[in-house]
Each structure stands twice: as C-alpha cells, then as structure tokens.
Amino acid sequence: MNIASYLQSQFPDSEISFSGEDCRSKVLIISSQFEGLNTLDRHKLIMGSLKEKFQSGELHALSIDAKTPTEV
Predict the structure, then answer these.
(1) Most buried among 42, 44, 49, 52, using CB within 10 Å?
(2) Is 48 left (phi over 0), alpha (psi -120 to 50) or beta?
(3) How far apart are alpha carbons 28 and 31 in whole angstroms?
(4) Assigned superfamily of 3-71
C-alpha cells in the first residue's frame, strides 16, 4: 500500500496530496479531524499513524502540512 492510500485509510474524511520520495517526501492533509488541534498535535496524530511505516523503513522522512477545511 502506498503512503497516500494508507493515510486516506487513517483519515477517511481527508483530502491528501503526497509527493516526493525518500528524504523529499511531502504530504498535505486537509481534514476536519484537525479542528481544535494545534500544529504539533496534528503532526503527532499523523506521525503516530505512520509509526510502523517509519520503523519498517518504508518511509524515511516526511514534511507535513496539516490543515482544516476552513484553513485552505
């Protein structure tokens, strides 16, 4: 499963844009799940869902942009 599909399964109401590979991977997630969360808590939520992907080496580094629908 690719990372974008995996994130879509973890954040089903979201719009996800994933680009790059290796150390240049970037993701933009727009989700109502981020309402009321600050940037750090949003990143923790996303990184927590990707923990196994990092541990397995499938994902090495990731730049995250997490927004609510009202922020775009």
Answers:
(1) 42
(2) alpha
(3) 10
(4) BolA-like (3.30.300.90)
